[in-house]
Amino acid sequence: MFRLIKGKTEEEILWEDFEQEAMPLVADLFRVAMYLKRDLPAAEDLVQETIMQGLKSFHRYEKGTNCKAWLTTIMYHTHYKQLRKQTNLQMVADTEEKIAETVQFEAPIPQQITDEDVLQALKKVPDTFREIILLCDVEGFTYKEIAAFLDVPIGTVMSRLHRGRKILRGELAVYARNYGTGNEETKEIKRKEGKLL
Amino acid sequence: MKCQDFREVIDSYLSDELLTETNHDVLRHLEVCADCRREIEVRRDLLAHIRSVVKNSPQFQIRGEFSGNLRARLKQSAAPKNVFWTSGNFWLAVAAMLILTVGLSIWFVGNQTVPSAEITQKTENSQPVFLEDTALGDHQNCAVKYNLAEEPVKIDLASAKYANLRQAILLPLQNAADRYEFLKSHTCKYDGHLFTHIIFRHQGKTLSVLLTDLQNYQSLKDEEIVKLAASGYQLARFDAKNQAFFVVSDLPQTENLATAEILMNSVRQHFTKPDKAKLAVLAKF
Questions:
Q1: pLDDT confidence of A171, banded at 50, 70, 90?
Q2: Residues of A with Cβ-Cβ distance to B39 under 8 angstroms
Q3: How far A48 CA sits from the closest chain B CA (Å)?
């Protein structure tokens, strides 16, 4: 009954595999591109270049491995290449330690926050940490995969994630406190500040 | 493990990055420590909330038009190149083209009523087909998540034409050996496309049969069924009478295809030999 496709060319087979493995991931790749570019046209350009490059190199992709991580690696390479073209990119001193120093207080975790609060709080997390939170907590990449994307040691991924989550909890706690919600610890803080009751 | 030790590894535990042994230590600690259990639950909820918010945020949603165009460009760039020139078929094709050109010229001269602009427009509009993405989106958002921007409309009120066609879909599935439980039917809109949507339960899974007018989209060949797999779903498409029919589900591919095959036969029969007696029986559904 089905029209069986016979005598497929290598390109056709490659395209079929690519379509099945890679194309469903375009929406995920777009999210990652938005994390990197924060601009719709730039993100779409990046996705397009990544996916075109992915198709060209797809014969090197090992079936059964993590295609999303494979394509994201290509995306990061492409992104860095674009950055190098745009500017004479120079690494500046890592500001992680300074930022970490400002987050001594272990923020309580708020329990009643809106979606908008989450997005706003994420915006307030410094880029270095937000990127790791998004890659790990939203996209589900492993520490090893993230370390490869960013070309940093796994330990750095771990510490950035720890600090990033801590900053995010701190930011969210502010929202929760503003609403007079949050867990008991949050409420305790408000009581001490004389804002509750 | 003490609470302080637990707090040191909590991030790695949440990311599922601990060694098995440490993981066991954490689990043992959680069994006896209510405070840490609560802490981990709250943090898990927070992570789930963040994940859901970001994934559903409009700013992170890919535009359908962009993904459609991207697929077209990719497909084009993946098309075989230069193979033809080296094969003996090339000269055969040249001969065929010559004959076709001469034939078309004769026909064109003798048939002035067909404006050339229409032909051009058809060619331009027959861009690659991306209805599959829209059909899959409709299944996910209408049948699975109930997350459509516009409320679905009852099928019989929306279109009498589709109400009849619906019966050609219901009968073969309800008569099939393996049970298809009819759930509901309506028309719904997704990504600008109006679908007639019939939802079944089959082998414990939700299965959508979706119909839409092809309009300017390219039609598939007669008796052709296209199958696709995306985001854990299986999709099969066939066309009939300038309409595209989709079967979408998270059933195994063979099951999804088998359903499409059953429907294609029935729909083709419906269009070629409308059996009024059968339709009258089915109208009772």
A1: confident
A2: 109
A3: 7
